[in-house]
Design a protein that fits this description.
The structure holds two protein chains of two kinds. Chain A has helices at 2-26, 30-52, 74-105. By secondary structure, chain A is mainly alpha-helical. Chain A has one domain (2-112): Helix Hairpins. Chain B has one domain (3-509, 526-601). Chain B contains 22 helices and two strands. The longest helix of chain B has 32 residues, at 159-190. The chains are: A mainly alpha, B mainly alpha. At the A-B interface, helix 1, helix 2 and helix 3 of A face helix 5, helix 6, helix 9 and helix 22 of B.
Chain lengths: 118, 603
């Protein structure tokens, strides 16, 4: 039972990952598709938090904590922040392209956009 | 000033120049922007080549902000420069230099954003090749991808490029997440992000977590490297990107994925899988062989020149992945030579296709039949021969090294796969070159079913501008000259020996221990590679002639060929559906297969 609880965030990460992938594969709308990529990305946050979490750890700010206090890992928080920034750029770029697609063709269905094949 | 002081320059200079052009680019004439981009990338090429030279005897380790390790625990981020990484960065700089030169006369209106993106892309690739930190590697990977998505969709007024860019963006972002998940697992296990420290902390540990991290990271970079079945984005993206962008995509970006897989396997995972070398070989070589064959067959079936070249890149990536999959220093040195030769030759071919698009307003092989001029025709033919591995182009030296290593390890059959891939891709390029230049062959055929449309990018002008054909000729000449330098071959082989040594890498980075220069045994050329490569060249020409003069082939043979290949080809074509959901389905399947096989074989 304890093993299940400790590994629960891990299963959540896999579940969110699977949801994002399912959404992308079955998407009928390009905006929906980009949002699904964002859902997929959330699974990496869960995984990062899981890795950096320490049972009973305080926030890693040593302003009023004595040195040697158990804190959660601050490095994964920095990683996550970088991840957020990088992926926000990619999302913005993808959405900008979707806007362009809509301007050009008037549809958002990926099925209607099959110019390249074979 | 020592060499190590120059280490951040290949990243800092292009990024600073990109920022400057972004701020002030619209205030200066287009010519000035081109000169800035040209000067920056050319200077970066000199610096990275110099770093490669300076690191021949001993890798350069540069700690940012002087945050050197305290008691073997790295506090800061470091760059670890070795000739292979710096050489790849130098190749990227040379290709960007050629691309911005070509682009000056190519677009109707080169906007400042083009130069900004190209320079940011170059800075990201340089950082990707030089860094010694896993998270840093991921960030540069994403920066490179973001710049590449924007460059791919540069012609954003047309639906084709937008579709290509969205497919490219979505699949490669998923690849990035796979890498991030893998590195998170490694961090959770070792508490380290520095490659050397991860390697030392893992200490050859071998368990489910390491296998999962290996599968995730390798698959993530395989998306970028376009390994089948994660490759579907590549032909769409490379074909619709503006020609100068296709040059850097095919010439170096895809190879960066191969480099990262090799770097992480050699530095981090090799000690863990030391007892499973044949299994790991089977896994990676299997992926490479499928990629080489699928890419080759699809390449021969195209009529859109840029798409044809894109599929040939898939085939050549298959050769490179098979080469690193041998997990052998000699093969790896061969892959390095091959990447260099292939990057230069493929870029020259893409630039030539761009000249056709400029002069004749089309990149459709059948439409161009008999209309090509002498100069692009000569460049295209020479490029086709170089792709076939005609000596002394770099592709020849590289391929014969990989084959020699494969022979000595008992994978001699790989030589046959490489030969088939070379015949198919070079045959397709030669067929196109002869059809366009000499007007041979029918104006319809199996190629007829492929993609053909391509929007023109320029206003028609008289003749070929100097800025267009000179870069293509210079790249081809470079591939020729580099292939004749025997010293280069040897230096790359020695660097490959060091590249494969995980404990020496960790000792150099964490303890500052300089290991002795490994001496590569001189290449035991038994004289069999030259006749072999000539045979490949002859067979490629024969394939091209067979495709062109297919009416003269006896009907029975033709029917047999159609029965053998026709169905497979139709199925392969149908898979390339252009639908991003299909591509992601294949990606998931590919990753699941690779993960399951890793779990079975490496356990």
């Amino acid at each position: 039972m304890t093993a299940l609880v400790t590994h629960l965030p891990f299963f959540v990460a896999i579940w969110v990952l699977a949801c994002g992938l399912y959404g992308i594969i079955t998407s009928k709308n390009l905006v929906h598709l980009v949002v699904c990529v964002a859902v997929l990305q959330s699974s990496t946050y869960v995984l990062l938090v899981l890795v950096g979490f320490r049972e009973g750890g305080a926030a890693p700010v040593f302003y009023d904590l004595p040195l040697g206090t158990l804190v959660v890992d601050p490095i994964v928080q920095a990683l996550m922040l970088t991840d957020v920034v990088v992926e926000a750029t990619v999302m913005a770029l993808l959405l900008a392209m979707v806007v362009r697609v809509y301007e050009r063709t008037g549809v958002l269905d990926p099925d209607a956009l099959l110019r390249l094949r074979g | 000033m020592t060499a190590s002081a120059w280490t951040p320059a290949p990243v800092a200079l292009p990024l600073l120049a990109a920022a400057a052009v972004a701020l002030f680019g619209h205030k200066v004439p287009r010519f000035v922007r081109t000169v800035i981009a040209f000067a920056t990338s050319a200077f970066t090429a000199i610096v990275t080549a110099g770093l490669a030279w300076a690191s021949l005897g001993d890798p350069i380790v540069y700690w940012f902000g002087d945050w050197a390790p305290r008691g073997q625990i790295p506090l800061g981020v470091c760059f670890v420069v070795d000739p292979i990484g710096a050489g790849l960065a130098a190749l990227a700089s040379v290709l960007v230099t050629a691309a911005v030169t070509f682009a000056d006369r190519y677009f109707d209106d080169v906007q400042a954003v083009f130069h900004v993106l190209m320079l940011a892309f170059l800075g990201a690739i340089a950082g990707f090749c030089l860094t010694g930190d896993l998270f840093n590697l991921f960030v540069f990977f994403e920066l490179m991808s973001a710049a590449a998505f924007a460059l791919c969709g540069y012609k954003s007024r047309e639906p084709g490029p937008l579709q290509g860019a969205i497919n490219f963006g979505v699949t490669n972002t998923i690849g990035g997440f796979l890498v991030l998940d893998g590195l998170t697992l490694l961090y959770g296990r070792t508490g380290a992000l520095n490659l050397a420290q991860i390697a030392r902390t893992l200490g050859g540990a071998h368990d489910g977590l390491v296998i999962a991290a290996f599968a995730l990271i390798t698959c993530g970079f395989f998306v970028k490297a376009a390994v089948v079945p994660l490759h579907f984005w590549l032909p769409d993206a490379h074909a619709v990107a503006p020609t100068p962008v296709s040059v850097v995509f095919s010439g170096v970006m895809v190879e960066c994925g191969v480099y990262a897989v090799a770097r992480l396997y050699a530095t981090v995972f090799a000690p863990s899988f030391a007892g499973f070398v044949p299994h790991a070989r089977g896994l990676i070589i299997g992926a490479g062989v499928i990629t080489a064959l699928v890419g080759g067959v699809m390449c021969l079936a195209q009529r859109h020149l840029k798409r044809l070249l894109a599929f040939s890149t898939v085939a050549h990536v298959g050769v490179m992945v098979s080469g690193i999959g041998l997990l052998d220093a000699r093969a790896f040195g061969g892959v390095a030579t091959y990447v260099l030769g292939h990057g230069l030759v493929k870029s020259s071919l893409f630039l030539t296709a761009g000249m056709y698009l400029h002069r004749l307003r089309s990149v459709d092989e059948l439409e161009l039949r008999g209309r090509g001029g002498a100069l692009p025709g000569a460049l295209f033919l020479a490029g086709g021969l170089a792709l076939a591995g005609a000596p002394p182009f770099g592709t020849f030296g590289g391929e014969s090294e990989i084959e020699a290593a494969a022979d000595s390890l008992g994978y001699g059959w790989l030589g046959i796969v490489f030969t088939i891939a070379a015949i198919l891709t070079a045959g397709a390029v030669l067929r196109a070159a002869m059809r366009i230049s000499f007007g041979w062959g029918p104006s319809d055929g199996e190629e007829d079913r492929g993609e053909r449309s391509e929007e023109t990018e320029t206003r028609p002008g008289p003749g070929l501008p100097l800025a267009m054909w000179v870069p293509a000729a210079v790249l081809l000449a470079l591939a020729f000259v580099l292939g004749t330098l025997t010293g280069l071959d040897r230096a790359l082989r020695e660097s490959a020996l060091r590249f494969q040594d995980s404990s020496a890498y960790a000792a150099r980075v964490l303890d500052g221990v300089v290991s002795a220069v490994p001496s590569a045994e001189p290449s035991a050329d038994d004289g069999s590679s030259l006749p072999r490569s000539l045979l490949v060249v002859v067979l490629s020409c024969a394939t091209a002639f067979a495709a062109l003069f297919r009416e003269r082939i006896p009907a029975g043979v033709r029917k047999l060929a159609v029965a053998l290949l026709g169905g497979a080809l139709r199925r392969l074509r149908a898979l390339q559906s252009g639908h991003v959901g299909d591509y992601v389905t294949w990606l998931v399947l590919g990753v699941a297969c690779f993960g399951a096989l890793s779990a079975l074989l490496l356990r």
